[in-house]
Amino acid sequence: MYQPVVIMGMHRSGTGMLARILEDLGLFVGKEKERNHEAIFFLRINDWILNLCGGAWDNPEVVDSLLKNKELFEMVTSYLQKYLRSPKNQEFLDSNQTGSFNLFSMTIPWGWKDPRNTFILPIWLTLFPQAKVLYIVRNGVDAAASLKTRGEEELQASKLWAANANSNYLPRFVTSVSCLNLENGFKLWETYVSKGVETLNTVNPTNKMEIRYEDLVSDKGKLLTALCDFAGLKVGPVEIKAALTMINPHKAFVYQSNPSLLNFYDKVKNSPMLKQYYPDEFYRKGGTKAA
To answer: What was the pLDDT predicted at 161?
Structure first.
């Protein structure tokens, strides 16, 4: 039986790209998925957990209050044990593909992606103690800038929509008001990455794999092969070569070609999390270290 591959990492850091690539190589990541390649079944469960705590994806730390409350933690995990076995799991499973109606007896490699797994992982490890945890980290300046860009695009689209809407319901104009601000986006990145470090320390070394986004987008096949081995996927050089075409190598260290983001980098370059994952910064294009 296959244990799930739980994909996690900060938003806008490559979790979606990773899920798409691994799905293309044979990892089952859900029958019904939303636009960010998150399985709707597990997305709703993580929504429910965050809502219980009064949190959100951009305010995830409140989940700690649930994890520290033994009675509530046991209630949640006990309920999910039954929920995962209920007919609702057919939102995730495709019996024609998986050959199974039971998430606890999967006969093919499978998993799901959700950045919020970073905070909810203790619950998932209680339910799937031998789950494989795949954690991806992207440079915090690029992640924060990507969040800001997405928010600004949402805001402009909402302006056009609101000008012509019937106004018969109250919409959410942007995914995160806070992350329209670059500093707030970077602070959220620090929050996710520090929690990622903390939670990964609780996982058996053989059941976890940690990668940098920048290493993946510059990969020539070695890292992707290792990822497939970790996920239990049997693929050859031909499949790996085809999968590499899904990666945009120009997405690494985008901030280096943007003067305003370079200025912001100078302000945050001493961040402990940035220094931990990017101790060899600053790199110029072509891979040479700056003077």
So the answer is: 85
